[in-house]
Amino acid sequence: MTDVEVVDVGTRACLVEVDDAVAAASLAAWVRGAGLAVEEVVPAARTVLLDGVDPAAVRALLPGWSAERAAVPGPLVSVAVRYSGPDLERVAGHWGCTVEEVVELHTSLEFTSTFCGFAPGFAYLAGLPADRAVPRLETPRARVAPGSVALADTWCGVYPTASPGGWLLLGTTDADLWDVGRAEPALLAPGTRVRFEARR
């Protein structure tokens, strides 16, 4: 088993600390399929919160998991994007390429939703190569439009509602990211694979 740290959060919850978001996603998927009696599994960037569970049971189960265990591939969702964002040229300059090449690279990648946070329906999508990491804006925008597709560091995300934000904006989508009428309200729930498609 990969070294992990289990921190008790009261008597019926614990926080499992791991190395990175990929390990957190792998652990969360494994726990969901391991038959552990747990009410909620919440992955984050380097942790997994297990709520409604005996921490001792978690410690007993963890030797069966390793960070090398790949998560079972989730459903694939295609997101149509109008690539007309205000930061396209900034990203192109950072990557040393053209705007067209930014779009070509972004649409060639398969991203994976590793965890949700910040706002209901906002998924942190992993899959951008480390050499394509981009900085956040020094001064965040007071308002980012809903449906904005953005990059920050090696993350990609889509703003589900209007909010402040400092990520670099590539374009917009009409995809319905959060709908409480669905069985799973988040369109890009953790584990979902995501491909972006250019549209006019």
Automatic annotation (TrEMBL):
Gene3D superfamilies: 3.30.1360.40, Cyclophilin-like. The keyword Lipid biosynthesis does not apply. Residues 4-188 form the Carboxyltransferase domain. Keywords: ATP-binding, Hydrolase, Nucleotide-binding. The keyword Kinase does not apply. InterPro entries: CT_C_D, Cyclophilin-like_dom_sf, PxpB. Pfam families: CT_C_D. This is Carboxyltransferase domain-containing protein. It comes from Nocardioides pini. The lineage of its organism: Bacteria, Bacillati, Actinomycetota, Actinomycetes, Propionibacteriales.
